[in-house]
Each structure stands twice: as C-alpha cells, then as structure tokens.
Design a protein that fits this description.
Blueprint (H helix, E strand, L loop, with lengths): L1 H56 L5 H21 L3 H30 L1 H9 L2 H127 L5 H32 L5 E4 H11 L1 H7 L2 E4 L5 E4 L1 H17 L8 E9 L2 E8 L31 H11 L3 E7 L3 E9 L5
Parallel strand pairs: 2-4
Antiparallel strand pairs: 1-3, 4-5, 5-7, 6-7
Helix pairs in contact: 1-2, 1-3, 1-5, 2-3, 3-4, 3-5, 5-6, 6-10, 7-9, 9-10
The site of adenosine-5'-diphosphate has 21 residues, from helix 9 and helix 10.
Length: 449
C-alpha cells in the first residue's frame, strides 16, 4: 500500500518536474525573443544615427555604427524568425521585415547621395520618408514587445505555479519515503522479535520434549522396578502360602474329627483363602511376566489357539453348561501363541462366568478382517457392561462385582490388554447391559506388513 502511494507520488513528482522544466524553457525562450527584438530596435536606431552623423559631417567614420547595424540586423531578424512561433507575432515580424528593408534602402540611398552632395542627400531626408518608416517600425516593434511581455508574464506565472506543485510533490514523496522507511524498520524489528520468539519457542519445545523423554524413561524404569518388585513379592509369598494351604489341609484331614464344627469351618476357610490368594499371586506373576518377557511374533493360526483353549477349559465349560460356537475358518495372525492363548482363555472364561444366574451361557467366536488386521470377537449372552465402565475394566484389579457374586482377581482383562499391546495389537469391548458383550482383540494378519 505504502509502496504504491510512494510510486504514485514519485511519478507525479517526475511529471511536475518535467512540466516545470518545460515552463522554464518557454520563459527563457520569451526572454531571448525580447532580447532579440530590443537588438533589432537598437540596430535600426544605430544605423539611422550613423547615417545622420555622416550626412551632417561627411566624415566616413560616422558610418561605422551604420555599417555594423546593416550587417547584423538581418541575422538578428533570421534568429527571431526561428525563435518566434506564435502566429500573431510571426505576422508582426513579417510586417516588420519589409519596413526595415525599406528603411535600410532609404539609409543606403542617402548615404550614397551624400557621397555626391550634401544637398541631394538632405533633399531625400526632408521627404520625411525615413521618419515615417522609422515610426512604423517603432510601432511594430512596440506591439511585438508588448505581446511578448504579456507572454512572459503568463509563462512566469505558469512557471511559479508549477514550481509550487513540484515542491508539494517533492514534500509528499519525501514524507511517504520517510513513512515507508519507518514501516520497513518496524517490520524488520517485528520480524526480528518473531525470529527470537520462534527460536525461544523451539528451544522451549526441545527442552520440553527432552523432559518428556526423560520422564517417560523414568516412568518406564519405575514401572519395570514395580513389576520386578511385584514379581519378587508374589514369588516369595508362594512358599509360605503353600505351607499355609498344606497345613490347613493336613489339619482338616488328620485332626478334623477332633475339632468342633466351628473349628472345622475355620480350617476350610483358611484353605479357601489360601487357594484364592494363590490364584491371585499366579495372575500377578503372569501379568508382570508379560512386561519382562521377550515377545517374538510369528504366524499363528487363530483356530488352533481357540481350539487349544477350548480343550484346556473343557471341564469348566461343561460345568457351566456353556454352548460354544466357533465360526470357522478363523484367520492366521502375527502373534505369540502362548500369550495369545492366555488372552483368549481369559475372554472365553469371562464369557461363561458373567451370566445371569440360571441362564445358560452361549458363546460365539468369530473373526473378521479390518484392512491389514484381523479382529477376533468373543461374544456372550451375559450380563453386559455399562458404557462408563467399558474402559476401566481393562486396568488391573478393576472389578464391577463382589467376589461372592462372581469370583475373580480383577487381573484377567489387564492381562488381555497388556498381551495385545506387546504383540502390537489392540483390544476392546462393545456391550449392552442385560444383553451381552462382545470382547475383541485385533492383530496383524499373517503375511501382511
Ligand atoms: P475377573 O474376571 O477376575 O473379575 P477381569 O479383569 O477378567 O477380572 O474382569 C474385570 C471385570 O470386568 C470383571 O470383574 C467384570 O465386572 C467385567 N467383565 C469381564 N468380562 C465380562 C463379561 N464377559 N461380561 C460382563 N462383565 C465382564
């Protein structure tokens, strides 16, 4: 915007300067014309003065100004002719020339006659022809001068007005140039500030990324330590627990008959609590082992994994009276067979566990393709899960029911989630309370990148 204004002002300044120069040239031209016409008048007068001097004295030295004027007046008139362009002035000039010619003719005649006799020359002078010619020439010269002066006044006026405008445009151009310079300086300053801010922000982001990286490392390390700790404790707890369990069994077998009814019940409770704790420890160990174990992926047939789990769990499935339907064929995935088996087992056992009392569990297992991935669904007709709990149940120890209603440790789904994470897959659930759930796990299709 400023640049456009500045360019416009510079163009105007340029135009007004060229018009100013034009006016100056015209004024100069008029001055030159005035100087020339004054010269013509002076030369005619000088010629007449020389002629008079010579006639009166007869001395030839008086003829010098006359002769000089005779040679110069024509070149002055020719110069004027090239200078004058206005038609009225050219007209006056055209009228002047024959008069001057006549005047110089008269002068030449009298000078020639004076060479013969004073009286002859005086007679010609007395005819007043020379005087009349002189007056006519003077009238033309005066008219010419008047007109030229008026032109000079007009041209000087124009010159002044153009000079005023040129000064204004020059001022405007300078102002705009200064304005542009200030804007440019501000812009540069802003760019510099931006660059500084940008550099600071980049530095800040780098620091932040570094910090996040460091914290993530620390967290991973802390998690690893926690896992190792949980593993050690769980592992170490197994021996005293086994002893507790063994002694409770021994007590009930060897001394059961000696104990009163209540004592027998307490002994059974100790045994049951120890079993429950053993189960919990077993799950914690599996969960923390998953974080430490090296996981090597290879093509695994989902069908063989599912069949293996169904075979292992046949007794529990039969106890629950479950009806399991596998929609074959299932696909091949990239996985770790044992880890995948553990995850699928957790899903199938949950599917037959979380049913309404008295209802017969129905489980459907099917696979579907999702681009380069395969999703295995384990669907049940169980109690279902509220939407608000569907994510948190994948965290360790998150249970939606008491152990009396549905026994369990709350680690099964955490194992599923961690197993899939370690195999580069995903896990989730779609469920409607009262109608059933569809737990799914997703893994890369074998043979796909
Ligand atoms: P656990 O089975 O030992 O309780 P999980 O981690 O396997 O632990 O499951 C966590 C919780 O998620 C369960 O306690 C239950 O409330 C809910 N849940 C899991 N599977 C199902 C299912 N198929 N239907 C309804 N609720 C389920």
């Amino acid at each position: 915007m400023t640049a456009a204004l500045l360019t416009a002002a510079a163009l105007l300044l340029n135009l007004s300067l060229s018009r100013l120069t034009e006016s100056r040239l015209l004024a100069f031209e008029t001055n030159t014309v005035l100087r020339h016409i004054a010269q013509v008048r002076a030369e005619v007068t000088a010629a007449e003065t020389g002629q008079r001097g010579y006639i009166l004295t007869g001395e030839r030295r008086y003829l010098a100004p006359y002769e000089e004027a005779v040679t110069r007046v024509w070149s002055t008139l020719t110069d004027l002719d090239t200078l004058v362009r206005a038609p009225d002035q050219r007209q006056r000039l055209a009228e002047m020339r024959p008069l001057i010619e006549a005047k110089f003719g008269e002068l030449a005649r009298t000078v020639e006659l004076r060479g013969q006799s004073f009286d002859a020359a005086l007679r010609v002078v007395r005819t007043d022809e020379g005087q009349r010619l002189m007056e006519e020439i003077a009238t033309r010269v005066q008219a010419f001068e008047q007109s030229e002066r008026a032109r000079l006044v007009a041209r000087t006026g124009a010159l002044e007005s153009r000079a005023t405008w040129a000064t204004r445009y020059a001022g405007l151009t300078v102002l705009l140039a200064l304005g542009s310079a200030v804007i440019a300086a501000l812009w540069f300053a802003r760019q510099k500030t931006h660059a500084k801010l940008f550099a600071a922000e980049r530095g800040f982001r780098r620091d932040l990324e570094h910090q996040v990286e460091e914290r993530t490392l620390q967290l991973t390390e802390a998690n690893r330590e926690l896992d190792a700790y949980a593993y050690t404790i769980s592992h170490d707890l197994r021996a005293p627990l086994r002893a507790m369990h063994g002694y409770a069994d021994a007590l009930s077998e060897d001394y059961g008959s000696l104990l009163p009814k209540e004592g027998q019940r307490f002994t059974q409770r100790i045994g049951a609590a120890a079993s429950q704790m053993e189960e919990l420890i077993q799950d914690i160990l599996s969960y923390s082992r998953l974080a430490r174990e090296e996981v090597r992926l290879r093509p695994v047939s989902l069908e063989s994994v599912v069949d293996g789990v169904l075979a292992r769990s046949a007794e529990r499935l039969a106890e629950a009276g479950a009806e399991v339907h596998v929609e074959r064929p299932l696909a091949e995935v990239t996985a770790h067979a044992a880890i995948l088996g553990q995850a699928v087992e957790n899903l199938i056992l949950n599917a037959i566990k979380f049913t309404a009392s008295g209802a017969k569990p129905k489980v459907r297992i099917r696979a579907e393709r999702h681009g380069s991935m395969v999703r295995l669904h384990v669907e049940d007709n169980g109690i279902g899960i509220d939407l608000e709990h569907q994510e948190r149940i994948f965290r360790p120890f998150e249970r939606l029911h008491g152990a009396e209603t549905y026994p369990g440790t709350g680690i099964g789904l955490a194992i599923v989630r961690r197993s899939l994470d370690r195999m580069g897959g995903r896990s989730g659930v779609n469920s409607t309370p009262g109608q059933g759930s569809s737990f799914w796990i997703e893994l890369g299709r074998a043979g796909e990148e």
